[in-house]
C-alpha cells in the first residue's frame, strides 16, 4: 500500500555522534519493517537533512546507485510521508536541467542545497533531483520519500568525486571513509564515518568490490564462494559467481529454484508449490509449525545463514501463492551479469560495512554478524575469512570511535511552531501546546468604546 495523499510530518531526530578533532562520525536510526512482505513498501529509510534550515526527509536507502532525490511538497501523487519544500530553504538553487533519471511516471529537475545527517555532517551545494511529478505505484517502492544512493559511480571518476560521501570525507568531516549498516529489525541503524563495535560480532570479513562492466544493471559487484542448502553443500552452478547487494528488493536470486525446492538435501523436508507463470515458489504453512527456508551464502570462506521466519519465508498471501501457502524469497537468477542478487533477506541477516573508494583504495564490503541475541552458534560466530585483502594495511586500518555526544538542532518544520505555548480550549488537563504560524495571525483589536455605546 502506498500513501498518495500528503500529510504534515514533524520529526524530532535523536542521533549520537563522536568527534576526534575536526573529524566526526554519526549513528542514525534506520526504519525497517518487522516482517518482509511482497505487498507493501519494505525498503529501509534513513533520516536525512536537506536545506537551510534543515528539513527531515526519510530517504529510501539504495546500496547500488548514487541517486540522490527527494519529493517536492507540490507532488500530490508521490509515495511517502516526507517531502522537501523549496520555499522553506534559504540556500536552495535551481541548476536548470532535468533530473537524468526522470521517466514518464516520475520526473523533476536538479537543484542544489545543503545536505547532511543529524546536524553533525553537512555539505553545501550538493546536487539532487527534486521529483515534481509522480504517480506510478510500480516505481513507488524505489522512490519512497526519495532516494539516498550510497554507491559512488565506479566508472565515472568525476561523478564519484561529487558524491556526498566523498565530499564529506575530502572536507575532513569523516573519521573514516566507511559506512556501517544493520538492516535487522532488532536494532536497525546506520553509522557514517566509523564502525561501532557494539553493532556487530565476529570478524569483519573484508571483500574487495570488482570492476563492473558499464552494460550491467548493477555495479556494486563482489565474488562469493557459493550458496548452500539444508545439507551444507553448494547448490549446482552457484559457486564462484558475481553477486550484488540490493536494499530495494525483497528477493534472493539463485541459479535454479526448481532444483532447490525439489531436492530434500537442499530445501529440507518441505511441501512446496511452484507457479511457473509468475516464478513464485511457496511452502505449505497452514500448520502451527512454520516451514524453514534453509539458505546460506558463503563469502570468502565464511557461512552467512539467512533468517527464515518473516524474512525468507513470507506471510500467507493468497493473491500470489496458493491457499495455505507462504511465498519464499528465492527466485531464478537472470541470464545477464551480475549472476546473483542478494536483497533484503540477506541484508537483514548480517552486519554490513562499506569502505567507499578513495584515492589509492578501491571499494570493499565487510560482512559480520549483528550483535545481540541473534540465532547464530558459537561456531558460526568464530569463523575466520579464507583470505585478507592485500592492501588492508593501507585501506582498512580504521580509527576506532570513542565518545558519543548527542548534538541538537532544530528543523525547518519545528521552527514553524511558536516559542510560546497556548492553552487548549476545553481541555480538562489545561494542556498548553505551541501553535503553527501563530506569529503571522493578525492581532485582534478590541474597541471598548463601541461595546459601551449600547
Overall residue-averaged pLDDT value: 86
Strand content bin:
25-35%
Terminus-to-terminus distance: 61 Å
Enumerate the spans where pLDDT stays under 50 for 5 or more consecutive residues.
1-21
H/I helix tally: 10
Structural class estimated from helices and strands: mainly beta
The number of strands is 27
Based on CA atoms alone, the radius of gyration comes out at 25 Å
- Shape label: globular
- Helix percent reads 10-25%
**What profile does the largest beta sheet have?**
7 strands, antiparallel
The main sheet orders its strands as 1-2-11-10-24-25-12
Structural features, described:
The chain is mostly beta strands and 454 residues long. Helix content is 10%, strand content 32%. The protein has ten helices and 27 strands. It has helices at residues 137-140, 157-161, 164-170, 257-262, 264-267, 344-347, 378-381, 392-395, 412-415, 448-452; strands spanning 16-20, 23-29, 45-50, 55-62, 68-71, 93-98, 107-117, 121-133, 146-149, 178-182, 189-192, 200-208, 221-224, 226-228, 241-245, 252-254, 272-275, 280-284, 296-299, 302-305, 325-327, 330-332, 340-342, 351-355, 364-370, 417-423, 432-436. The protein has a seven-stranded antiparallel beta sheet with strand order 1-2-11-10-24-25-12, with no helix packed on it. Strands 3-4-9-5-8-7 form a six-stranded mixed β-barrel. Strand 6 and strand 7 form a beta hairpin. The relative contact order is 0.16.
